[in-house]
Design goal:
Number of strands of chain A: 31
Largest sheet of chain A: 7 strands, mixed
CATH architecture of the largest domain in chain A: 6 Propeller
Helix content of chain A: under 10%
Strand content of chain A: 35-45%
Helix content of chain B: 40-55%
CATH class of the largest domain in chain A: Mainly Beta
Number of helices of chain B: 6
Shape of chain B: globular
CATH topology of the largest domain in chain B: 60s Ribosomal Protein L30, Chain: A
Oligomer: heterodimer
Shape of chain A: elongated
Number of strands of chain B: 4
Order of helices and strands of chain B: HHHEHEHEHE
Structural class of chain B: alpha+beta
Number of domains of chain B: 2
Strand content of chain B: 5-15%
Largest sheet of chain B: 4 strands, mixed
Number of helices of chain A: 3
Structural class of chain A: mainly beta
Largest interface: A-B, 44 and 28 residues
Chain lengths: 453, 200
């Protein structure tokens, strides 16, 4: 069953603060530099007004705590250290009790079952030093959506304390890798919540599926399917489960220049969702094409005999970055979305591949191979300045940005006696907070959904 | 007195290691090594039982490029897939990050072309493969280049283009799974599969 990403939450109201706030220096987490001093935060279990939801209050707090800790920017304080027992979130907490355990901020919450059976989830975020409320919000949702409410709360706390949008109420689509009964490699599309919860397969094990990407609405994905025996770009509607090959062999209309025996690779959506940039094999090698999802017209943007692959749009939709072997080894290039004004942006030794434009627009993440090692790095989109390496390992592939451009997911491979083991890891833009994503088994090719409304 | 016994134990241990590694691989390559290992074991079991001072010969390195000799004195049926594999060879190999054909690769492809000219109903798919030392999409493109290089050479040798389709599996269909150059070299290939028009 396909889980809908449509809005399931109602933001009811901002909670009025029990007291007037003082205007003083507000609590703020600096996320621009490597954060080695995460903010100490207290998160007592959300209070459940109704006995039957007593466990749920603790569940919600656990999800929020895990989200915030995973960012590396917050240090949740162990509940056993708490002095005050929060019984009513509408009363001012005893701030000295929280300051003494070194909590800079305190998040308290309450869940109430409404007459219509839905849950009312309310929370307040306190600055324990200024003794002011930083945030007070309540949501209404169906009881089964409690995890999404928890992620929404974590996003709100993250945004209030960092000044940037959170990324916790999101989904990740990826390739679940495994071995079949005869040892044959399996590659199935799967997706899950950003924290690893609610995983499910999107394709079966009968064919290979690779390189998924989300649409801006998170309602569709593109991916590379081997259903017909060779790499073919597919569009997959997550709501209906319907999928289609975008460029059938031989092509049609403007696609007649496509090698009838050629492959089509990973497609990325334009920011407005109306077009796809995709590398398609022509008789002349692989070239970047634009596919208009309304007119179904395929337009060729590059004509070089070398392979041009891995296109990715800038967030304003004006330019496209791609990798190309036109200069000998693979390097990164940008061009206008109509194919004009091609500029090379990397010049270092080694092979540069997998460019992905940051949602913030200023950076491009890439994989680089040099001296037998694989590196994950970022470079300024205009090619100026020096590249910054965030991670180095045996194998790195397919970087994917968090919606706020602060975190990168990537495929990481490490050699094992029975073959390379692939996992998805995350690292922040400063090169800190390296973590393995909680997939069940081997996994690769992560793509991060936008924040779900 | 104790010498030969210890030697045999050590050797058997080493031999088991060979057999285990090879079990991880696939296809003809495995079969050949397995047979060799069994033969070697048998030979040394005999040697240990009867010879006081056995001399250990190093086990030759496996040759991954060509299939094993048939076990039976009778060869495969003419025009069959096995016949193609054994008389022409079904795969050619490439250098790191390369898609140009070596002289060895061209020799194999000439044999493939000759076979295909003889058995003119046969249709083929050429699959390009890569080692794991490249990113996924890059390797899908590189694999396509390898398959196309093999295809174009077959066409230059007179094979009708309509009999050939190509595909690329990038790095996703490795023959060998270990992380070393020998293994990677085995995985950088274009493999010709007869898809129809062959004798059973």
């Amino acid at each position: 069953m396909i889980r809908l990403l449509a809005s399931i939450l109602t933001l009811v109201a901002a909670l009025a603060a029990p007291i007037a706030a003082h205007a003083q220096e507000p609590l703020r987490v600096d996320i621009t530099e490597g954060n080695l001093d995460p903010l100490p935060l207290a998160l007592p279990d959300f209070i459940a007004v109704d006995e039957e939801f007593a466990e749920r209050g603790a569940d919600i707090t656990r999800v929020i705590t895990n989200d915030l800790a995973s960012s590396g920017l917050f240090a949740p304080i162990d509940q056993s250290a708490y002095i005050e027992d929060i019984e009513n979130i509408d009363l001012r907490p005893r701030f000295s009790d929280w300051r003494v355990i070194n909590a800079s901020a305190l998040l308290v919450g309450r869940i109430t079952e409404q007459d219509d059976g839905r849950l009312l989830v309310a929370f307040r975020l306190w600055d324990t030093r200024l003794e002011t409320q930083m945030l007070g919000v309540q949501y209404v949702t169906a009881p089964e959506n409690w995890r999404r409410v928890a992620h929404k709360v974590a996003d709100a706390v993250y945004q209030r304390l960092t000044g940037e949008e959170g990324y916790f109420d999101t989904r990740i689509v990826y390739v679940a890798e495994g071995r079949g009964v005869d040892g044959e490699p399996l590659h199935q599309l799967a997706w899950m919540d950003q924290d690893g919860a609610n995983p499910s397969f999107l394709t079966d094990r009968s064919y290979m599926a690779l390189l998924p990407n989300f649409s801006p609405s998170a309602q569709e994905i593109t991916y590379v399917s081997f259903l017909e025996g060779q790499a073919t770009t597919y569009l997959y509607d997550l709501e209906t489960g319907r999928q289609e090959a975008l460029f059938a062999s031989g092509g049609r209309g403007a696609a007649t220049q496509i090698d009838p025996d050629g492959q089509s690779l990973s497609a990325r959506f334009s920011p407005d969702g109306s077009q796809l940039a995709v590398s398609v094999e022509t008789r002349n090698g692989h070239d970047i094409h634009m596919f208009d999802l309304r007119t179904r017209e395929l337009t060729r943007l590059t004509q070089h005999p070398a392979d041009d692959v891995e296109p990715s749009f800038s967030p304003d939709g004006e330019r496209i970055v791609f990798s190309s072997s036109r200069g000998g080894g693979s390097q990164l290039y940008t061009m206008n979305a109509d194919g004009t004004d091609v500029q090379r942006i990397t010049f270092g030794e080694g092979r540069y591949t997998t460019p992905v434009w940051s949602p913030r627009g200023d950076l491009i993440a890439f994989t680089k191979q040099s001296n037998g090692r694989f590196l994950l790095g970022v470079v300024r989109a205009d090619g100026s300045g020096i590249e910054r390496i965030l991670f180095e390992g045996y194998y790195v592939d397919t970087p994917a940005w968090s919606p706020n451009g602060r975190v990168l997911l990537f495929t990481r491979g490490e050699p094992r006696t029975n073959g390379t083991r692939y996992e998805i890891w995350s690292i922040d833009l400063a090169g800190f907070n390296l973590r393995r994503l909680a997939t069940g088994g081997m996994a690769s090719d992560p793509a991060w959904s936008p924040l779900i409304d | 007195m104790g010498g030969p016994t210890i030697f045999c134990v050590l050797f058997l241990g080493r031999d088991r290691e060979y057999a285990r590694k090879i079990w991880l691989d696939e296809g003809v390559y495995i079969m050949k090594i397995k047979l060799f290992a069994i033969a070697a074991l048998a030979a040394f079991a005999t040697a240990c039982a009867s010879t006081p001072e056995p001399v250990a010969d190093p086990i030759p390195e496996p040759q991954p490029t060509r299939p094993a000799e048939p076990a039976q004195p009778t060869g495969p049926t003419a025009g069959s897939v096995d016949h193609f594999v054994q008389t022409a060879g079904d795969r050619v190999f490439f250098g790191y990050d390369r898609h140009d054909l070596s002289s060895e690769a061209r020799a194999v492809l000439r044999d493939q072309a000759a076979w295909l000219m003889t058995y003119s109903d046969a249709r083929i798919t050429i699959a390009g493969n890569c080692d794991e030392r490249g990113t996924r999409e890059y390797n899908l493109a590189l694999g396509a280049r390898r398959a196309n290089a093999a295809r174009d050479y077959l066409i230059s040798q007179g094979v009708d283009p309509s009999r050939i389709t190509t595909t690329s599996f990038g790095k996703e269909r490795p023959i060998c799974r270990q992380s070393n150059e020998q293994c990677w070299a085995t995985n950088r290939n274009a493999i010709t599969e007869i898809t129809s028009g062959y004798t059973n």
